[in-house]
Amino acid sequence: MAKNVHLRILHAAVLILFVVGVSGLCPPDWFEHGTSCYKTDHVKRTWDDAAAQCDRLGGELLVIETIEENEFIHGLLKNQSKEWAWLGCSDRSTEGQWLCYKEAASGVTFRNWSPNEPNNRGGTDDCMAFHMVDGKWSDSKCDARIVYAVCETISIQGKGEGVTPSSSAAPVSCYTFGSNGRLRV
Ligand SMILES: [Ca+2]
Ligand SMILES: [Ca+2]
Fold first, then answer.
1. Taking the domain 32-161, which CATH number applies?
2. Cα Rg, the chain, nearest whole Å
């Protein structure tokens, strides 16, 4: 009798693990939203260091493409009380010409600047930052170590919706299943 109960519990546990293992569209500890996965970092970094950290985690610095995505990120940062977060766009190469980190975002036109931003203050505001207070963006000093990283990668669902790698050497994320059945970056 007791053995049967234990077996049933074991079966249920295996089933739950299986369902969780195969239904996750994002790596463990990443937030899923739309066709993307997001991970917040808990160390304040420069823009370059934040970009490197996202690369290490298997993603890229966040690039916001719609007001809906902006609202999601706004809620996420508010929830974690993070005042500023780096966005993956910079105008370091050519002043006023904002290039975004994500290859797929090269055609992105969505902008959500604060009033009077970008102002290129002191001639050196060249990296894009998100302000938790109002969800608006500013240009900031790339070497200011006052900002958190938010990393983004495309979810399995997103990859299945016709996202094709570009012909240039854009970073590519690969996923494998670990021995525990969960995704491994
Ligand atoms: Ca600038
Ligand atoms: Ca500024």
1. 3.10.100.10
2. 20
- pLDDT above 90 covers a percentage of the chain that reads 62
Give the span between the Cα atoms of 2 and 138, in whole angstroms: 63
The pLDDT, as a whole number, for residue 56 is 96
Q: Are strands 84-90 and 147-154 parallel, antiparallel or unpaired?
A: parallel
- CA–centroid distance, residue 108 to ligand 1 (Å): 18
Q: CA 93, CA 101: separation in Å to the nearest integer?
A: 13
The tokens for 15 are 């089933």
Please tell me the number of Cα atoms within 13 Å of 167 on its side-chain side.
0
Ligand lying closest to the C-alpha of residue 140: 2
CA distance 32 to 63: 15
CA max distance for the chain: 77
Domain extent listing, the chain? 32-161
Ligand 2 center–CA 5 separation, angstroms: 64
Q: pTM for this structure?
A: 0.72
